[in-house]
Amino acid sequence: MTMQSAQTASAVKVSRLVKHYGDMVALDYFDLDVKTGEIFGLLGPNGSGKTTAINCILALLVYDSGTIRVFGEPMTPTSYELKRRIGIVPQNVAVFNELTVVENIDYFCSLYVPKKAERAPLVEEALEFAGLQDFRKFRPGKLSGGLLRRLNIACGVAHKPDLIFFDEPTVAVDPQSRNAILEGIQRLNRNGATVIYTSHYMEEVEQICDRILIMDHGRHLALGTADELKAMIDTGERITIATLDLTDDALAATRALPCVIEATYDGRELDVRCRRGDRNLTDVLDTVKRFGANVGHLTSRPPTLNDVFLELTGKALRD
Prior knowledge:
Low-confidence stretches: 1-6
Number of helices: 12
Structural class: alpha/beta
Shape: elongated
CATH architecture of the largest domain: 3-Layer(aba) Sandwich
Number of domains: 2
CATH topology of the largest domain: Rossmann fold
Largest sheet: 6 strands, mixed
Order of helices and strands: HEEEHEEHEHHHEHEHEEHEHEEHEH
CATH superfamily of the largest domain: P-loop containing nucleotide triphosphate hydrolases
Number of strands: 14
Strand content: 25-35%
Keywords: ATP-binding, Nucleotide-binding, Transport
Distance between the termini: 44 Å
Protein name: ABC transporter ATP-binding protein
Mean pLDDT: 92
Helix content: 25-40%
Organism: Bifidobacterium callimiconis
CATH class of the largest domain: Alpha Beta
GO molecular function, one term: ATP hydrolysis activity
Pfam family, one: DrrA1-3_C
């Protein structure tokens, strides 16, 4: 395989996947194409079908129709050679409380690498990778939330998988551990692993993912880099103005501006969603001041992935 074809080959290719739970459609002709070597973000509100899609890809669920190929081969429940190339870091920490840190990593690695002599250096490398060398004899109950998450990751990646699924790996961890986890994921990727990443934290997704797919109701809604996704929506700028005396007339005049998509006021802050334009801030500020409002702190920012998500799905990611 040439370098160019290796870069563009699919690590995971899902075509027209359909999955029902009784009368409910969980996946509705869902498509996914993750290229080898990328960090791919998979986003969707709760109930959008993310977990169902991942479980189908891993051959943990039977689906109604469609095709799934991993590294170019069909994925089935008995595709053991393919499964050895996959690592999973689940959202809920899945370790044994009776085993020490090093024993946990060794156990999970043994599911893929039966020979202890081959496994030993992999376990040590995973310990070092997760920054857990000083905690090797600790049981999980003695670890902080951040260290426990890092152990969860070490157990999922010790066998050096080519494809790794990370499902919400930074939930409820401190900022230092979060940064360590994100840097670790990027390091795994630089060392050759393809990563599929789900998170509720949009800033993380924007920081580490090469491409992002937004899904809802079991369907593919939008795909692209963070910048490409932001260019797909109407919102070009978000303006917030602190003011305690905005009148109804001032709010109505703001909403009537050609650049304004939506304006809301909660008695303390005016929040204005604008289309792309060079004079948005000036136009909004002039309008507010014309009606005599006193203006405090104001901000203007380009759209975020949260804005993209809200506009495409009608929901906040946490809904």
